[in-house]
Amino acid sequence: MRSYFFWLIILTACSKQVEKPFVQAVYPTSNVLPENLLRMYIQFSQPMKTIGNIEKIKLTDEFGIEVKNVFFNNTKELWNREQTQLTLILDPARVKTGLITNEALGHAIEPNKNYILTIDNLEDVYHRQMATSFQKNITVEKADVTVPEIKDWIFTIPEAKSKNSFELSFPQMLDYNSLKLRLIITDNENDPVEGVVSIKNQETQWSFQPKYYWKAREYVLHVNTRLEDPSGNNLNGLFDHKIGSLRYKKEGVIERIPFTVKR
Length: 263
Hints:
The protein has helices at residues 2-17, 92-95, 100-105, 176-181, and strands spanning 23-27, 32-34, 39-44, 57-61, 78-79, 85-89, 114-119, 134-141, 154-156, 166-169, 183-187, 195-200, 205-210, 217-224, 254-261.
């Protein structure tokens, strides 16, 4: 019993030292999003509880009316290992045309309309509610039905003996998590180059700053073909491909793109 009260006092003291959680960012960061948006990410300032959160996240239209049946409420919410990032999926059955739910309800969000995403009352692992409500204004444009293509990317290659960033610029925004996980740089001996990745300009730029100076040699950018945009279109094809057709001919294939750092 004494041990129980000891740990209760410790936990209470620790919780008092922790600031209330707040939303640090919502991806995509752009406020203009396509009607076939598939996925969003909500980043919090500290580890959060991982159950019962989806129903506390609301989408309302420009008249303040809540839009129902927008988010896919899976039995197990999709959190990162640190419990600081929640993946929010718009119901895929409404995104993909030709399915019964899409035929009956259409896309969850409609072009040329405005919405407000509200995140409120979520609790962290210390049972502390968010300090303030968070809102994101969204303007919806027509569906994104273009496939990302490497040939459209702009490469900025640094010079040797510098720690300048290697940068990729894209003609349209790409998925935040894809950019973090599906691009890697190695040297020509296939050893990963250590460094820090930054995602900028509303997810239209990927920047890699090396830990050590670049050498005058050949490097390789590895691109997983699952790299996708916020609507789920990846390097293999459209998310909303024809039912019964094969999209994933190159599923999981790694494209190797060599580049040379010069003196």
